Amino acid sequence: VAGRRPLIAGNWKMNIDHLHAIALVQKVAWTLKDAGHDFDDVEVAVFPPFTDLRSVQSLVAADHLHIRYGAQDLSTHDEGAYTGEISGAFLARLDCDYVIVGHSERRAYHHEDDAVVAAKAQAALRHGLVPVICVGETAEDLEQQGPAAVPVAQLAAVLDGIADRLGDEAAEIVVAYEPVWAIGSGHAATPGQAQQVIGRLRETIAERLAGPLGADRADRLADATRILYGGSVAVGNVAGFLAEPDIDGALVGGASLDARSFADIARFR
Ligand code: PEP
């Protein structure tokens, strides 16, 4: 973790409508508050469906909750004739801090390639949102190329696409390593496996950005960037991941839909 503030992020996927979103966010917030959770120590964020964001925004503002939130996707475009798309500008106006880009489900079901993911990360940064850049190998990739090759290549491609924006000292990104074989399977990677890949991802940030940004800025960004593990994270395994030197948090799918489980994950210490 090395000075980086841990981030526990809940990806709700296409679950929980706006009515239930209020109840879930309230329950997470109250459970954490009752447990004396220090949000400055471990940051907590949720990623509801688009249609829930306005409700979440109102609740967070009215109750002064310390829960942060973001969207699960955004358009590469800022506005215009793009039916069904959501602009990063709209997300920024809803006070989103984050937006997920390149989740494996979008890559698989919506054919998003590295160029699209890079354009989405660009769009996020253009609107002052922190992109949570998801990378990860399938079981087939793992068998054919080992664990790190595909996630490293995916991250390198996105970094190439956003390097000009990362020259800005205020620019921030989050990376999530999510082996596709571990997502929703109940079979998480081991902390050692995740650390091995995440360590390589951190090196990739320094190496890939040294050219465009200079070695100093690239090293600083590699050091400051939070890299999360995702894939069947649960109350029983989260602490093992966070004990690794390069793992700075978790992106949680299934277990983020239950307030008690998600709050317990956030209380991993
Ligand atoms: C995810 O899809 O981002 C994820 C981590 O899911 P799960 O925790 O359910 O494996």
Write up this protein.
- It contains eleven helices and eight strands.
- Helix content is about 45%, strand content about 15%.
- The radius of gyration is 17 Å and the shape is globular.
- The two termini are about 15 Å apart.
- Strand 7, helix 10 and strand 8 (about 250) form a beta-alpha-beta unit.
- The model has no long low-confidence stretch (mean pLDDT about 95).
- An eight-stranded parallel β-barrel has the order 1-2-3-4-5-6-7-8, surrounded by five helices.
- It has a single domain (about 5-265), classed as Aldolase class I (TIM Barrel, Alpha-Beta Barrel), CATH 3.20.20.
- It has helices at about 20-35, 55-60, 90-95, 105-110, 115-125, 140-145, 150-165, 190-215, 215-225, 240, 260-265; strands spanning about 5-10, 45, 70, 100, 130-135, 175, 225-230, 250.
- By secondary structure, the chain is α/β, with parallel strands linked by helices.
- Helix 7 runs parallel beside helix 8.
- The protein binds phosphoenolpyruvate.
- Phosphoenolpyruvate (PEP) binds near residues 178 and 251.
Please give the structural blueprint.
Layout: E1 7-11, H1 18-34, E2 43-47, H2 53-62, E3 68-71, H3 88-93, E4 98-101, H4 104-109, H5 114-126, E5 130-135, H6 139-145, H7 149-166, E6 174-177, H8 191-213, H9 215-224, E7 226-230, H10 238-242, E8 249-252, H11 259-266
Parallel strand pairs: 1-2, 1-8, 2-3, 3-4, 4-5, 5-6, 6-7, 7-8
Helix pairs in contact: 1-2, 1-11, 5-7, 7-8, 8-9
The protein binds phosphoenolpyruvate.
Residues 11, 178, 183-184, 230-233, 251-255 line the site of phosphoenolpyruvate.
